[in-house]
Design brief:
By secondary structure, the protein is of the alpha+beta class. The protein is 48% helix and 14% strand. The termini are far apart. Residues 483-629 form the Thioredoxin domain.
Length: 631
């Protein structure tokens, strides 16, 4: 049978000329048969392509669309045509849909005007089987076949397919009614809203006892139409149909989350677990309760709670965060150790999650190191240095210093010192310093230890540390050299908090660091500990001065006095009440750090605070040192 798609057969149309043909044999294929087909591309978008292949899916009833797995069919060229074969399974399939493409340039396709080419299944009497037409619409609305083509389906065509199926097989309406109405909504034909709402009500009225699925589908349709009053009404009906169903569980879970009274929240959670022991919400609620115990400082209760939870409902990263915070704050340390040990046990028992990161084994190892790091910290804070040192050895990887954590490296070396393993830890510490993964505290500790070794002196220790830092500092200097600017430094004279006149003319030949700030500026205040460290590094250098210029305060000066009285910063604070100095120095936001070189030129400007004190101190220190050297 040679078939040109048109109204002749199943409303299947072709937008090409009569010479663009697709035919198949037997002419009325049935289940279990092999179908041979011929594709003639002469007037299609693939007319000039020579390497063609077919892509197809089988389809069936809406609840059988899992069979619609895209598959390639090989084409054999015969003259100007291409031939191929397809097998129709013995059950479930009601048709096959195909499109053709260039196998080497898959973006070049023939989709038959977006309707695909169709081979419908027939029964023994030669009649088209139910779902042969509606199933085509399901391919568009219930499968991912169209994704391969980077196109969207035509809702008008999909509506036509659904309506033809329902006209031929009205008894199939319960399977297609919601998909049909969803297609009408996407079609957005004039007057579609009232029409769809009437259809929904008519369908539900025809069902004396609508199923949960039907109520859910109706709710989704009303949601698409933006009628949330109807949506809420239908959801209430769903709850009566399934009093222990997902909607009821969701509402109860939301109520537990929103409960602000801790005792009531615990009681509500316990009732939820009793009523819905297999609920999908239990894992999220367990996290809520875990945080609740922590926030209410019931750490013993927290330990008891998490140890009662199934491993599938235990979030090890949440436990890690809590245990680490307890360790940092040096409180409930035995419980912190117990929590993190439990988290390690759970992680070991965890199977691969249903929705897992790309490489689950690599992710598991990452989590293992995070948990072990916290475990070592809980031991260290309890004075269990020997145990902590052993655990840190499982965390530290001397061959991967570039990806190490500077704080962990410092703690590792401190534990090594306290357990007489400093020499063993030395290779990792040296590698960390060489790749800029060492805190200032670690560098100081290493220098002091090195100076005390037989035959060494403080001078040798300084040279030893400088040699370790030489390469990374050279790289940093090169990077900083590109960031340095060269602009005039406007003269200024301001009064500081002590009533003294602070004049730029008094600092000729010196390096001046200006930090523009205000008491209301969170990042400004957050950067002060780092700025204090930077100032301390040069406190004995008469050629370096730090000035913390208060600007854009927008309030009484007493606020600045009160702030400095409450904090232990030995800063010189000039008051730029009119913002003249800030404007002159092109301050666009605060905090802004400006460094003036000995030649009276602005050489460095940085806005904001990265949140990394170590990086801030290191960069400012390098800038100051470079300017002192005349760079």
């Amino acid at each position: 049978m040679r078939l040109i798609f048109g109204v002749v057969f199943l409303l299947l149309t072709c937008c090409f000329s009569a010479s663009a043909q697709f035919c198949f044999s037997p002419e009325r294929p049935q289940l279990g048969q092999i179908v041979s087909f011929t594709y003639s591309p002469q007037t299609t978008p693939l007319a000039k392509d020579s390497t063609l292949e077919g892509r197809y899916v089988r389809y069936g009833a809406p609840n059988m669309m899992q069979i619609s797995k895209p598959t390639t069919v090989t084409l054999v060229r015969q003259g100007a045509d291409y031939v191929g074969e397809l097998y129709i399974p013995t059950k479930d399939a009601t048709g096959t849909m195909l499109f053709f493409r260039n196998s080497k340039l898959p973006q070049r396709t023939d989709l038959n005007c977006g309707q695909f080419y169709v081979i419908p299944v027939n029964d023994a009497s030669g009649r088209i089987v139910p779902h042969a037409t509606g199933g085509q619409a399901s391919v568009f609305t219930r499968s991912h076949f169209l994704n391969e083509t980077n196109t969207r389906f035509d809702p008008t065509w999909v509506v036509t397919l659904y309506e033809h199926e329902l006209a031929q097989n009205p008894d199939l309406r319960p399977l297609y009614w919601s998909d049909h109405l969803a297609a009408l909504i996407k079609q957005r034909k004039l007057g579609y809203g009232p029409k769809v709402k009437n259809e929904i009500e008519a369908y539900l009225a025809s069902r004396p006892n609508p199923t949960l699925a039907e109520l859910t589908d109706a709710s989704k349709l009303y949601e698409s139409l933006g009628d949330f009053q109807k949506v809420n009404a239908l959801r209430e009906r769903q709850k009566t149909v399934e009093p222990a169903g997902s909607l009821v569980q969701k509402d109860r879970a939301i109520a537990i989350r929103a409960q602000t009274d801790w005792n009531r929240q615990k009681a509500a959670y316990e009732a939820f677990v009793h009523e819905f022991p297999t609920s999908s919400h239990l894992s999220d609620l367990a996290v809520i309760m875990t945080n609740g115990y922590f926030k209410n400082n019931d750490i013993r209760g927290l330990v008891a709670f998490v140890e009662q939870q199934p491993t599938t409902q235990t979030d090890v990263l949440v436990l890690n965060t809590i245990a680490y915070q307890l360790a940092e704050e040096r409180r409930s340390l035995p419980e912190a150790e117990q929590l993190i040990k439990h988290a390690l046990t759970v992680l070991k028992a965890h199977a691969k999650p249903r929705v897992a990161p790309g490489n689950w084994e690599a992710e598991r190892q990452t989590r293992q190191r995070q948990l072990m790091n916290t475990y070592a910290r809980t031991l260290e804070q309890q004075g269990k240095y020997a145990e902590a040192y052993t655990v840190y050895q499982d965390v530290i990887n001397p061959d991967d210093a570039e990806n190490s954590d500077p704080r962990t490296n410092e703690r590792y070396f401190l534990c090594a010192l306290r357990t007489n393993h400093a020499t063993d830890a030395l290779p990792m510490v040296e590698a960390a310093i060489q790749v800029d993964k060492a805190t200032s505290g670690l560098k100081t500790t290493l220098r002091d230890w090195y100076a005390k070794q037989p035959g060494n002196t403080p001078a040798k220790a300084d040279a030893y540390l400088a040699n370790l830092e030489a390469d990374i500092k050279a790289d940093q200097r090169d990077e900083l050299q590109e960031k340095l600017i060269n602009e005039p430094a406007p003269a200024f004279a301001l009064t500081d908090l002590l009533g003294r006149t602070i004049s730029s003319s008094a600092f000729k030949g010196k390096v001046i660091v200006l930090d523009f700030w205000a008491t209301w500026c969170g990042p400004c205040i957050a950067s002060f500990p780092a700025m204090q460290q930077a100032q301390t590094r040069f406190q004995n250098d008469p050629n370096v001065r730090f000035l913390f210029v208060n600007t854009r305060e927008g309030g009484p000066l007493q606020r600045v006095h009160s702030f400095m009285d409450k904090h232990p910063y030995n800063f010189v604070v000039p008051l730029d009440t009119q913002q003249k100095v800030a404007n002159a120095y092109k301050v666009q936001g605060i905090p802004t750090k400006v460094v003036i070189g000995p030649n009276g030129r602005v050489r460095y400007r940085q806005i904001g605070f990265s949140g990394d004190p170590e990086a801030t101190v290191n960069e400012l220190t390098l800038v100051v040192e470079m300017l002192k050297e005349g760079k």
